[in-house]
């Protein structure tokens, strides 16, 4: 029997286009197949409030640190997986719906939230955060570019909030912020830049340190500035990247490698008003145009689209965007999963979460694992990467403010073939269809979707479970047909490839 492969998830294409699927859910794209999407599994204890910021880093010493920010506190994950309050005295006053930004300068971590002075913590030395020294402005955004700490969308006592201003520290010293009009600032190469092309809108984020074609970038509402270090007297050059669309969601930006027309390059992937793009420091190229952009943007709650969060899965070559889809409120209930090597995406529906981010494992010894339970009750196996110091992994915070890793039972999966048929004839599926699954497929079910014309809606037959020989007995006919395979939650598998089934001619339509 011929293999009918499960099709690429291309919901923006019409069904008549052929090899495309709409119903793909809760799987991740792999070469010529789909893999499982694990569910979140709690790792830490619960924190005190909703998590609005996260940063994970490994110090020069090898120690791993994970920080979580709430509206009023900054917390550090301890070895017993509880959260230690490491806030500056008095805590914080983060405005509603504002998220914290974070960066690192060597072993120094910096958090910003627009309302409070930027907060700094020196790894292996400090026991609590403290504000940057006088002279530094408040800021929505922060980044490290070359040997400078950058702050963006700033506030200072003289000029108030400046939504298009970028300010940077003295060279090599994130704690040194001389008066920008002074000779000392000139000598130490500290200054600020107002991005005057106001038709590009306000600043949406600064990125640096990992772009192939620039030292950094300033993402605006409707464009992108390339940032290049040029030395004194200008220090940094800001040039608008020609044709690059701006950013519609500040926290959607993810810095990672990606496949471009000139090979694998360091890029920033992000969401614009009309879809998803990647920017390599020179140009932006679309990711989901004609594939999934329209479907995903229509699914987003319009009032929450700007909340879209992005994160990289460093092990599986995936970029994951969490967004609030239809039926959601203030928590994220959808994941757009994009494989940058294959340029393919899938959609995941999950229980609401507070945020998604990249995290580094704590690195716990066997003695430090004792308070977490016995070998039989530990949430993760002893050989898990999650106990190796500095090992990167994709993590989420659930509605109980707990750090979770995506290591739980697989989510219930659905995949689909493209629309199939025989040219000019009705066709029938009559016989045994064999799901091609690497792994355990004993609970798989197949249903046939059929219709008589491209103008008709698809009607699905009842789901047929696999029998003891691993096949499904199908009896269906139609002008256009497709096969949908479903697996329940917790089913273990590695690859969903397709279905072995044979189409035979049926009666001709008259």
Care to describe what's here?
By secondary structure, the chain is mainly beta. It has a domain at 3-37 and 412-505: Sandwich (Jelly Rolls). It is 3% helix and 45% strand. The protein has three helices and 41 strands. Strands 6-32-31-30-29-28-27 form a seven-stranded antiparallel beta sheet, with no helix packed on it.
Largest sheet: 7 strands, antiparallel
CATH architecture of one domain: Sandwich
Unreliable stretches (pLDDT < 50, length at least 5) are none
In percent, how much strand structure appears in the residues? over 45%
Number of strands: 41
Question: Which term fits the overall shape?
Answer: elongated
Number of helices: 3
Main features:
510 residues; five-stranded antiparallel beta sheet; Jelly Rolls; mainly beta; seven-stranded antiparallel beta sheet; 3 helices
Explain briefly what this protein structure is.
The protein is mainly beta and 510 residues long.
What order do the helices and strands come in, and which of them pair?
Blueprint: E1 3-5, E2 8-9, E3 20-21, E4 27-30, E5 33-36, E6 41-42, E7 53-58, E8 64-69, E9 74-77, E10 83-85, E11 101-105, E12 108-112, E13 119-122, E14 130-131, E15 138-145, E16 148-156, E17 160-168, H1 183-188, E18 191-194, E19 203-208, E20 216-220, E21 224-231, E22 235-240, E23 254-260, E24 263-272, E25 275-279, E26 284-286, H2 293-299, E27 309-313, E28 318-323, E29 332-339, E30 344-360, H3 366-369, E31 392-398, E32 403-405, E33 413-416, E34 427-439, E35 445-451, E36 459-460, E37 464-465, E38 472-478, E39 480-487, E40 493-500, E41 503-505
Parallel strand pairs: 2-3
Antiparallel strand pairs: 1-40, 4-5, 6-32, 7-8, 8-9, 9-10, 11-12, 12-13, 13-14, 15-16, 16-17, 17-18, 19-20, 20-21, 21-22, 23-24, 24-25, 25-26, 27-28, 28-29, 29-30, 30-31, 31-32, 33-39, 34-38, 34-40, 34-41, 35-36, 35-37, 35-39
